[in-house]
Amino acid sequence: MVLGITGGMGCGKSTAARMFEELGFRRIDSDALVRDRVLVMREVVAQAKRRFGAGVLAVDAAGCERIDRAALAKVIFADEAKRLEWEDVVLPRLYVLWRELLDGDPQARWVVEAPLLYEKGLEKGFDFVVCVASSSATQFARLAGRGVSHTLAGQRISKQLPLAQKIEKSDFVLSNDGSTDFLREQIIHLAARLVARG
Known about the structure:
Blueprint: E1 2-7, H1 13-22, E2 26-28, H2 30-38, H3 42-52, E3 57-59, E4 65-67, H4 69-76, H5 80-104, E5 110-113, E6 128-133, H6 136-145, H7 150-158, H8 163-169, E7 172-175, H9 180-197
Parallel strand pairs: 1-5, 1-6, 2-5, 6-7
Antiparallel strand pairs: 3-4
Helix pairs in contact: 2-5, 3-5
């Protein structure tokens, strides 16, 4: 069984995925894969420099060029064409990593954090899609707590499919405006239903 977790920025996709993991699901953290595996690929660093200039790079302690994620975000979220161009570089490499992990344990119950699941038409690759939903005020408050400015948060959220449409398209919806315990209770109930289905 492979669950896709979607929702808006700041809605709590990662928190929900970790809770599924606590219940025995194997978790794929797409943000971590991009950060730790994709963005450090030499060809990806070279693509970033060629497409957006040296201003999106920094030099690490070993003297090697690496992608400055904050600088890159400012560039791509301010320009729709550049954002889409960059997604075409990053996402195919991410999906290869997903497939390697899923194929490595096909009998496992998997939960995959997939922020652009509907935007990229990936829903058919999952047995079920779970949307984590929060109010706009909660989203912005959580993102501010991560150091994301209101302007940048608004830019990023505006590039995603509206949350209401994700809710409508998904198989299951988790409400995450309340406490962590409330979210956990919903996930325990949903996981039991899914496991019972086999």
